[in-house]
Automatic annotation (TrEMBL):
It comes from marine metagenome. This is YutG/PgpA domain-containing protein. One of its GO terms (biological process) is lipid metabolic process. It holds the Pfam family PgpA. The keyword Transmembrane helix applies. The chain crosses the membrane at residues 12-35. Keywords: Membrane, Transmembrane, Transmembrane helix. GO terms for molecular function: phosphatidylglycerophosphatase activity. The keyword Transmembrane applies. Residues 3-72 form the YutG/PgpA domain.
Amino acid sequence: GPVVIDEMLGFLVAVAFLPYSLSMTLAGFLLFRVLDIIKPPPARWLERLPGGWGIVLDDVAAGIWGNVILRLGLWWLGGDTAQST
């Protein structure tokens, strides 16, 4: 199917500046997809913005939620939340 740039952007936001690993990438992808479907605030509101803004910003909001949840999960598990260099 076609590449959907807004979905890619949302996923990249979800895993941005987190430690890279296959499990983190998979968790970020799955969490982003779930959040993109349920659209927690303010994603549903952002989706209503006119033009392409709503299409993109609801995915960015889902990605931000995903990133925060992943960071909290890492912190809770005692992991490092900073990206390795």
